[in-house]
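Data card: per-record layout.
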Amino acid sequence: MKGYRTSRGFTLVELLTVIAIISVLAALLFPVFATARGKAREISCVSNLRQIGMAIRMYTQDYDELYPWAVDPTDKFTPQIWDGFPEFQAQIPFMPMMHEAIHDYVKSKQLFHCPADTGYTVEDFTNELLDATPTSYGKFGTSYNYRTEISFRHAGEASFTAPTSLNVMFDAAGKWHGGLFRDRSRYNVLHGDGHTKNLSRSQLDALWLLPI
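The structure for this 212-residue chain is written out next.
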């Protein structure tokens, strides 16, 4: 009689042990993958802003070194934030959006799409309600806000008080690269001299206090 072997499957205990090990490994690796994915999106977003900065510089070469006379979604759709400056507010209905103003100077409109853009319903810096869902880019054509005071004051890099610090353009919402709470928010920022940097909410708040 020939010998034979009996096949033996996993016992319930062994199966549960394997599942537990896989669960632990998944729990350990998921944050790593999530962080890597978030960093990749941040790098892509920073690259977008850097190229937008180059487009703005090309624009200024054609327009007497002045920055585009343009607004962002915040100004366009919640103009009440400028109630204290009626001379500025009166210009808004006639001003194009920033991504429209420099359209001829960018290779693709996708430069205005931050891959981390998940939209927002309340503006970060004004607390005004604004439906920018499912994404700001999808709703308005841009993921970025602009320091529109530059336009109102007809300013440019040559006249900036501190171009290396001036916040020119930045993510419309800090939760895209940070947390939901204000102290965890982070923003990719294009500065007046063309360099870009990822800043915390407190760092960006400090830049708002700088004169144009």
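Known properties of this structure: The first strand starts at residue 120 and ends at 122. The beta strands are 120-122, 129-132, 144-146, 167-171, 186-191, 196-200.

See the next section for split statistics.
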